[in-house]
Amino acid sequence: MEKKVSESVINRLPRYYRYLDELIKEGVDRISSKTLSEKMGLTASQVRQDFNCFGGFGQQGYGYKVESLKESIGKILGIDRQRSAILIGAGNIGRAFALNITFEKRGFHLTGIFDNDPEKIGQTVGDIVVSDFEEVEKFIEENKPEMAIVAIPKAGVNQVVFRLKNAGIKAFLNFTHAEVEDAEDIVVENIHLGDSLMRLSYKMGEKI
Amino acid sequence: MEKKVSESVINRLPRYYRYLDELIKEGVDRISSKTLSEKMGLTASQVRQDFNCFGGFGQQGYGYKVESLKESIGKILGIDRQRSAILIGAGNIGRAFALNITFEKRGFHLTGIFDNDPEKIGQTVGDIVVSDFEEVEKFIEENKPEMAIVAIPKAGVNQVVFRLKNAGIKAFLNFTHAEVEDAEDIVVENIHLGDSLMRLSYKMGEKI
DNA sequence: TAGATTGTTAATCGATTAACAATC
DNA sequence: TAGATTGTTAATCGATTAACAATC
Fold first, then answer.
1. Nucleotides of D under 7 A from a protein CB
2. Which residue among A41, A194, A203 places its CB closest to the CB of B106?
3. What is the second-level CATH architecture of the domain A83-195?
4. With 50 as the cut, is the pLDDT of residue A191 above it?
5. pTM value > 0.90
């Protein structure tokens, strides 16, 4: 884990993780870079280069042990341990996400849900009661969640991120249609559903 | 629109579109590549190169007209005209998406929702009644939707895509945690929520 | 006209691919 | 040992950045 790992590699890591998970379920316990690359539409070289960013998980002449490779990648991704999150916004997207990750779970644990709509406060999503957003700072201080999923109307996003950041949250999953203003000491991952739709629309025009 | 446009450029197009939309709302009607690039965290060169993939929308010594630039990009993205879509899967994610794009609308129009769960068939999402998935072929033939949003458990995705493809749908927005098997004559855009979460987790480990 | 900023060509940088020696 | 496949170095390709002539 010496030199900086490129964005492209990072983007592929979750996909490797998913494929390896599949392989385990299929009972495969060993795989070569060639076979894996064919399954995933990459080149064998690329697969080996990617893994070697983190220092060689394979065995010459043999290939990679699926189980331990998956475990290693999980560790790199930081999902070997439970991470706690809060959800801001109990609207459609927020609720769907909460119910979905609780189901799917992958080392993530939702500890609180917040909204500023009196209609929604007190409602239950999964097994969590929606709290007033005004209480979020107190909650963060007491429970120290590591990340926040922001699923609110786009107008409020930067104000909300600002408050959460000041309260101690450093990682944000942003579902709003707006960009989070860059700040040095936080990390943001965006899920722009509209962008995906536009990209699909573009591809339709190109290829069909 | 001569030579092939790279993936990187395509990925940036929706972002340009959103920023230009913001600018219009702020009443800005003219912008230089330099100013736009600073707002978006790119370089001025990159912005000009990107736009020139499609053949120069600017004016030397002046810059770009925001309104017409947005319109041009909208056209490139294929969102200048209404596109019709159906939703497969009326679970949490599917419903959230349906309600969300109806709200946000950007040239997309949802015409049908399908599920195979008897509990969900007959329910209403927005102003659309959920139909039995068994009727999807008939619906497609009659209504000719252009794309399908697939928000079902991952196990079924390839079978569902196969049926929809045979019925005439060529574009898919895939919300499942599985990959759609490559087929020559369709286009797929993936939204893997779990991947985004993993990437965020990775970034947390790196930067914080 | 002078200043500004594009469109476009050339230079640089980084990521992907190819090749091969190391070694299981 | 022989065969297979990695780890790693070198070659290629493509994307980003820099530079500048064209021109509004």
1. 2-9, 14-19, 22-24
2. A194
3. 3-Layer(aba) Sandwich (3.40)
4. yes
5. yes
